[in-house]
Automatic annotation (TrEMBL):
Gene name of this polypeptide: dinB
Residues at the active site: 112
Assembly notes: Monomer.
Co-factor(s): Mg(2+)
Catalytic reactions of this protein: DNA(n) + a 2'-deoxyribonucleoside 5'-triphosphate = DNA(n+1) + diphosphate
Cofactor-binding details, from the entry: Binds 2 magnesium ions per subunit.
Gene3D superfamilies for this protein: 3.30.70.270, 3.40.1170.60, 5' to 3' exonuclease, C-terminal subdomain, DNA polymerase, Y-family, little finger domain
Species assigned in the record: Pedobacter chinensis
Similarity comment text for this entry: Belongs to the DNA polymerase type-Y family.
UniProt GO molecular function: damaged DNA binding; DNA-directed DNA polymerase activity; magnesium ion binding
A GO biological process held by the record: SOS response
Protein name stated in the entry: DNA polymerase IV
Broadest EC class assigned to this enzyme: transferase
Substrate discrimination, annotated site positions: 21
Entry keywords, A to Z: Cytoplasm, DNA damage, DNA repair, DNA replication, DNA-binding, DNA-directed DNA polymerase, Magnesium, Metal-binding, Mutator protein, Nucleotidyltransferase, Transferase
Length: 366
């Protein structure tokens, strides 16, 4: 008889708000309710869709789609600019609800988070009951809906939360993980993007069962370090803990130009605006960064980045702007036309606690 104590299975909940930005808009403005709402910008702008209401999604509108394409799909849609201050305030209220049940909360963005409720503060015990209680509180107190996934690890909980949207609750217990992962379409695997999914399908990897046929060394040969991750997750192995104090890695902002351009004055003006936005965000969280990165996307969608690091950290708009201009000049873009510019600060100097940081990488289109 073995004296070994079996490992304790963790109880992980992944909460994902339903069409968060659009739902907040519909809640706050009754005239938007029941109508297709696109959050992102004007229909004739170069902006992208941040999110769309479920009414808009019925027309095929998706996040990251251009606003002009969204307008083509649904000319009657209502296009609104994001109100990040409002979304941040709601996100903090959601976080307060989470904290009633556990202090082990790992936010991924304004609208989703992992919770470890292996030992919950109220002694409820059942992760399913806790998820129900959280969803009920969000609906009653904030007039919004959330979907929840419950399982023994982060990966399965995350996938589960997307299974029955909106307002869903999906539990995948230990005995069901194997069959669940084998049947899962490869594009549903968290961490497998469009490009990787296309590569996998070209290799006749269409489901988890197909992925499972490859050895770890074969996956590493094809996909590098990610291959080790794919090997484990398709077997339901995910030992990553829920990290309650995720370290913020970078803070940034980006914007799409109204028209593709190579005019210095236009690009400089936009970089000044972006620098001011980034500076405000850094100062809000009492952060200073030692590395400035400039992101440039050209009219043909080719993307380049240029970075510079300093011995002393900065968070002032003028300093950020000055370095961004230097990086733009050094990029030597010539006559190539630019469609998007972005600035990111990283390598933070200030290690102060960040109770209200919304995401690991604070970066938004605006």
């Amino acid at each position: 008889m073995s004296d070994q104590t079996p490992p304790v299975l963790r109880k992980i909940i992944h909460i994902d708000m339903d069409a968060f930005y659009a739902s907040v808009e519909q809640r706050d403005f009754p005239e938007y309710r029941g109508k297709p709402i696109v959050v992102g910008g004007k229909p004739d702008s170069r902006g992208v869709v941040a999110t769309a209401s479920y009414e808009a999604r019925q027309y095929g509108i998706k996040s990251a789609m251009s606003c002009s394409k969204a307008y083509q799909l649904c000319p009657t849609a209502i296009f609104v600019y994001p109100r990040f201050d409002a979304y941040s305030a709601v996100s903090r209220a959601i976080r307060e609800i989470f904290s009633r049940y556990t202090d082990i909360i790992e936010p991924l963005s304004l609208d989703e988070a992992y919770l470890d409720v292996t030992e919950d503060k109220l002694g409820i015990g059942s992760a399913i009951d806790i998820a129900k209680s959280i969803k009920d509180a969000i609906k009653k107190e904030l007039n919004l809906t959330a979907s929840a996934g419950v399982s023994v690890n982060k990966f399965v909980a995350k996938v589960a939360s997307d299974m029955n949207k909106p307002d869903g609750l999906t539990f995948i217990g230990p005995s069901k993980i194997k069959s669940f992962m084998e049947k899962l379409p490869i594009e549903k695997f968290f961490g497998v993007g469009k490009v990787t999914a296309a590569r996998m399908k070209a290799m006749q990897i269409n489901t988890g069962a197909d992925l499972k046929k490859l050895t770890e060394s074969q996956l590493v040969a094809q996909f590098g370090k990610s291959g080790k991750f794919y090997y484990k997750i398709v077997r339901g192995i995910d030992d990553r803990p829920v990290r309650s104090n995720r370290e913020t890695k970078s803070v940034g902002a980006e914007d799409t130009l109204a028209e593709d351009t190579n005019e210095d004055a236009v690009m400089h003006d936009l970089l000044r605006q972006i620098s001011e936005t980034v500076a405000k965000r850094l100062q809000k969280y009492q952060l200073k960064g030692k590395t400035v990165t400039l992101k440039i996307k050209f009219e043909d969608f080719k993307l380049i980045t240029r970075s510079r690091s300093f011995s002393m950290p900065i968070n002032e708009a003028e300093n950020i702007y000055a370095e961004a201009i230097k990086l733009l000049n050094e990029a030597n873009i010539g006559f190539a036309k630019v469609r998007l510019l972005g600035i990111t600060l990283s390598r933070f100097y200030d290690d102060a606690p960040l109770e209200n940081v919304e995401r690991n990488q604070l970066e938004f289109d605006f």
